[in-house]
UniProtKB/TrEMBL annotation:
EC number: 5.1.99.4
InterPro entries cross-referenced by the UniProt entry: CoA-transferase_III, CoA-Trfase_fam_III, CoA-Trfase_III_dom3_sf, CoA-Trfase_III_dom_1_sf
Organism (species): Danio rerio
GO CC term, one of those recorded: mitochondrion
Function: Catalyzes the interconversion of (R)- and (S)-stereoisomers of alpha-methyl-branched-chain fatty acyl-CoA esters. Acts only on coenzyme A thioesters, not on free fatty acids, and accepts as substrates a wide range of alpha-methylacyl-CoAs, including pristanoyl-CoA, trihydroxycoprostanoyl-CoA (an intermediate in bile acid synthesis), and arylpropionic acids like the anti-inflammatory drug ibuprofen (2-(4-isobutylphenyl)propionic acid) but neither 3-methyl-branched nor linear-chain acyl-CoAs.
Molecular function as annotated in GO: alpha-methylacyl-CoA racemase activity
Disordered: annotated span: 314-344
Keywords: Isomerase
Catalytic activity: (25R)-3alpha,7alpha,12alpha-trihydroxy-5beta-cholestan-26-oyl-CoA = (25S)-3alpha,7alpha,12alpha-trihydroxy-5beta-cholestan-26-oyl-CoA; (2R,6)-dimethylheptanoyl-CoA = (2S,6)-dimethylheptanoyl-CoA; a (2S)-2-methylacyl-CoA = a (2R)-2-methylacyl-CoA
Designated name of the protein: Alpha-methylacyl-CoA racemase
The UniProt record lists the keyword Isomerase: yes
Enzyme class (EC, first level): isomerase
Pathway linked to the protein: Lipid metabolism; bile acid biosynthesis
Amino acid sequence: MALAGVRVIELAGLAPAPFCGMILSDFGARVIRVDRTKVAMTVDTQARGKQSVALNLKSPKGVAVLKRLCLQSDVVLEPYRKGVMEKMGLGPEDLIKENPRLIYARLTGYGQSGSYAKAAGHDINYLAMSGLLSMLGRSSEKPYAPLNLVADFAGGGLMCAFGIVLALLERSRSGQGQIIDASMVEGAAYVGSFMWKSRSIGLWNRPRGENLLDSGAPFYDTYRTSDGKYVAVGAIEPQFYQQLIQGLGLDDTDLPSQMSVTDWPQLRQTFTQVFATKTQAEWGQIFDGTDACVTPVLSQDEVLSHSHNQARGSFLKDSQGEISPRPAPVLSRSPAEPCGSRDPFIGEHTRPVLKEYGFDQAQIEQLLSAGIVECNEAKARL
Ligand SMILES: C[C@H](CCC[C@@H](C)[C@H]1CC[C@H]2[C@@H]3[C@H](O)C[C@@H]4C[C@H](O)CC[C@]4(C)[C@H]3C[C@H](O)[C@]12C)C(=O)SCCNC(=O)CCNC(=O)[C@H](O)C(C)(C)COP(=O)(O)OP(=O)(O)OC[C@H]1O[C@@H](n2cnc3c(N)ncnc32)[C@H](O)[C@@H]1OP(=O)(O)O
């Protein structure tokens, strides 16, 4: 796999850093998640292929253990508020001084500088600060965050993984590590570059929800079908729009022109009425195999059985029967091989990882009896 041999220490976080760690793990990196002690359950639902070490960082001895793990690894991924790592003496300067090859990734909402750097926040705040939230939502309605997808995952976890891969690539030439300052505000904005770059062509001149691609255009929207399901329509180009009109059984000469913005509300009404006359599956029979750009809106449970997804193996079922997306993109020679077994229990790998990182048996027992580390192997065997 592409990242085989790369050792990552991931400090346990909420959602973006776990996703970043899972991407690295799916593509072959060895990811060791450092969890808190005295915690019954992890909130990391993206732990595929990771190992867990439970370590008390409130103790100087725990901090010393973490330092030893970091110094022998390729990547440290930390999701804390600015200053937390420095307070423990584990800031990037300290660690990179001792391990110049170390890649130190800092995944935060607002980045390591600026007046918001130390403020708490979540996806919706970062999205708001990126300028993108102001563009999301239906006409005359308030801005609407599309789950916590854009800042946490696209602009956060994924962008940070990209930064790590770039730093690894550069290190293969220079032999040196570096610090990655991954701000979710900036990551989200960068993912949305098109929204800035396309202003000059007038794509966003109208109010929110009234433009071509923000649900303003009737040929770029979702419609309810007679069985209470939905279809998605993305028939932008005239030749594809013609196929949509044909599939709907409408006569083009009775309709206003596609790009007549003032007629869009009326056209939307017509489409709404027509789509409501058949089931989602019936529309599938009409539109599948055409270029009308009409697809079913599938639920999370339906994706696995759709013929196209099935043919490509786009979704996986793990050993627990849980469905999740296959890692993307697909590399021809060294594709991801996601681990099929269950996620680790907190502290499940404390003992073997410490051993591997050079702690001897007596040191491990001492750390265990002092409560600096926890080991949950017994639970893991149950
Ligand atoms: C919208 C998303 C968030 C969605 C997350 C949800 C999926 C989950 C959120 C709550 C979960 C539920 C909840 O936990 C209750 C249940 C628990 C149960 O186990 C499971 C079910 C639950 C219902 C559970 C279910 C779900 O998991 C939840 C609903 C986001 O936007 S995520 C993005 C957030 N932002 C960032 O990541 C940006 C960077 N980080 C930050 O800005 C801050 O970290 C943050 C997020 C604001 C939190 O600030 P906080 O003050 O809490 O921490 P920090 O200042 O960063 O400091 C960390 C301190 O922790 C110490 N520490 C770290 N590791 C250890 C250790 N191993 N041992 C000891 N101590 C440790 C560290 O030293 C710091 O201590 P100090 O404060 O003293 O310096």
